[in-house]
Every structure is written in C-alpha cells, then in structure tokens.
C-alpha cells in the first residue's frame, strides 16, 4: 500500500488547494474535448441555418438547436468524466436520464441566451442610432461580448447544474450552476473577441471552433474549481487499487455505500463488498458511518462518528474522511480510550478519542501474532488459538463456527473475533446471555478492542486472553 497523501493544510485557502488539484486541469482538458465534439455536431445545425436563413423565429430555433447540441455533447462527456474520476460507479451511470436532460436544458438556455443577446444588441444599436453615433468599433465589441457572455452564462449554468440534478444533490446543483455560469460567461465574452481577431482572415467556422472549445474548457474548469473550493466534506481513496486518488464530495445528508450500481458511492470493482454495505449519514453537525461493520481507524465499528482524517477500510480500499468544517482534527490513529471495569462498562470504549494538532500517517500493520483464549482453571472446556494467518473467527455453540463452545449458555452464533491494525477486537453478535469483559457486559454489535490480559465470559465459561502462544 502506498503511503497515504497528507491531508490539505488547514492554513491554505481552499481555492489555492483547488488550483493545485490535478483533477481541475484534467477537467479543463476534458471540457475542451467536449467543446470539440460539440462544435463538430453543432456545425451540421449551423450549416443548415446558413442555407435556410430567414425569419427571426427560424433563427431563434436554429440557434437554440445549435446550443442544445453543444450542451448535449458537453453534458454527456463531463458526466462520463465525473463518474469515471469519482466514486460514482461506471462511466455511463445516469446517462439514460442525462441525455434528455442535457438536450432540454441546452435548448431552453440556448433560446434564452439568443433572446437576451438579440434584445441586448437591438437596444445597443437603437441607442447608437438615436445619438447619431452609430459605429462598430471597440466599444461595440466590448458591449456585444458582455451581452453574449451573460447569455452564455445561462447556458453554462444549465449544463453545470445538470449533474447535481441527476444526483439529487442540492449542494452540487448550486455549485455546478455557479461554476457553469462563470465558465459560460468567460467563454461567451471571449467568443466575439476571437471572431474579431480571426474573422477577417479566416472562415467563420474557425472562430466558432476556437470559441466553443474555450467555452468547454472554461465551463469544465470553472465548474470543477467551484466544486473543489466550496466542498465541505469528502472521501478520498488513499490505498493502492482502482479507487486510489478518487474522491467523492459528501453533499446529501445520507449517501449509501456498496457495490451495487444504485448506491451513491458505487464501488463496483470491489467484489468483496455487499451490494449495499451501509451509509454515510449527516446528523446534527457530525458525519457518521452506519451499516455493516467496517474498520475505522483500526477498530471494527458499525455505528461511529467520523472526524477529519478518519480512515475507513471499506472492502479492499482505505479511504480518508476530510471535513473542512472541523477546525481541529484529531489523530484518528490514537488508541481508543479504555475504561477500567471499575469506572465504566466496556460499551463506553466508543467514546471520542483525544484531540491532536495534526494527523499522523497511517501505521504499517505489524506482523500478525497469535491470540490464545485459555479456559479458567478447573473448567473442562478446550481453549482456542487464533493463528497469525486467520483474520477473523466466529464463536458459538453451533457447528460451523471457527470456535465451537459446548456450553448451553452460549448462543448458536455468539461473538466474532477480528484482527485490527492495533491488535484484536471482539463483537457480541446479539447473544442471549451476553458477553462479559472483566465482569462488564458488552453492548451488542459494538466492536471492543482487546489488548491481552482480559478475562472474557462467554456462556458459563471464563476465558483468559493472551497475546501470542
């Protein structure tokens, strides 16, 4: 496993972090590619307009169709890139509802942009004619470019918001619309200047090509820049594998996680995962993991709060949780607080960990050791040894358990032992008579870390826990 990347410094402004992100510049390139595809497809519409020019209505319809085709191409390519570069699943996810959405938003925003541009230009020329100072110089070029920029900002906002609409994420809708509007305005403003510079010596198609490609680059880049700058919490893959370096902003209050294609975070390449493993849930001011047991900061847990820098082992991938809203991240790798049995029950071991000024690097797992469970003196039960090669074991009365205990007080499937970065953890699986550590009953379905030297009671038998052996 590669050494995990250091979390972004809290003293570095988010916008500077966004500019330093390789994903931003990759998205700029993908946006430019989308512009090339959009231009090629849009030229069929544009050539038809040249041959059939006529009424204002026809011009408006043709212009709307031209923008709609460009929006469709940009939306499809940017959506595919967003899926492929994040944790959304396969690249074609949401494509079926996305195609008509992109086309519709493109047609509507294209019509609005053309109307706004036509009205703006008409007002400007009327004003010049009334003043008797009609001219096509620099001031007119600046004014017309500004008007076109406003119109194309509507187009960009529609394309930028569309991915958030597909995901049902209000935050992403707002961020996407803002980024798309900025990109559309920049691209639209430059469009007329490019035409003025290149139009006199080249065919009309070359300025359009350059303008649409720049529009795609600005739209993709500005949308990603705003998303990166304004995101609050996100997951980042930090272990070697198919999800290394990929991230997912946490926008909705509940995001499902699993291998299934319908999960918000669809880790479809990991065959070890259940179709739906659990969910990341925002409650109050805190993100939580809720669902099946996963290893969080070295401890198996199924319902745990997340702090900046927390590490989640989901299937075969290690993820780091990042949260800009928390100003003082704690060290997620500090050992859990262990309360002596005379002060608090072992269920309290899930209390928050100490706060530290910085996040330590992930530990390198030590060479696994054996764990021995020896029955108390005078008991006829046979002990159990968890070998270094064994990662987990089930405990219970029924056959099929790794550790079968012939005791009427033991449930058929009583408990589970699991290795962690820090050693070993035990989870009571909702047994009838419970599991006790040093005389204190465990809460069911909560993993408790063992360090060696504890006394565990399962059924009517007490066992001594020992590292090694």
Structure description:
Helix 2 (22-51) runs antiparallel to helix 3 and helix 5 runs antiparallel to helix 6. The chain has helices spanning 14-19, 22-51, 56-85, 95-131, 138-167, 170-198, 205-230; strands at residues 233-237, 247-249, 254-258, 265-266, 278-283, 286-296, 299-305, 311-314, 317-323, 371-375, 384-386, 392-396, 403-404, 415-420, 423-428, 435-437, 440-441, 448-450, 455-458, 461-467. The strands form three sheets. Strands 1, 2, 3, 4, 5, 6, 7, 8 and 9 form a nine-stranded mixed sheet that branches. It folds into three domains: 14-230, no CATH class; 233-323, Tumour Suppressor Smad4 (Sandwich); 371-467, Tumour Suppressor Smad4 (Sandwich). A hairpin with a 2-residue loop joins strand 5 and strand 6 (286-296). It contains seven helices and 20 strands.
How much of the sequence is in beta strands?
A: 15-25%
Work out the radius of gyration: 30 Å
Oligomer: single chain
The helix/strand order is HHHHHHHEEEEEEEEEEEEEEEEEEEE
Shape: rod-shaped
Q: Class by helix and strand content?
A: alpha+beta
Largest sheet: 9 strands, mixed
Q: What's the pLDDT, averaged over the residues?
A: 77
The level of helicity is: 40-55%
Which regions contain 5 or more consecutive residues with pLDDT less than 50?
A: 1-11, 327-366
Per DSSP, the total helix count is 7
Number of domains: 3
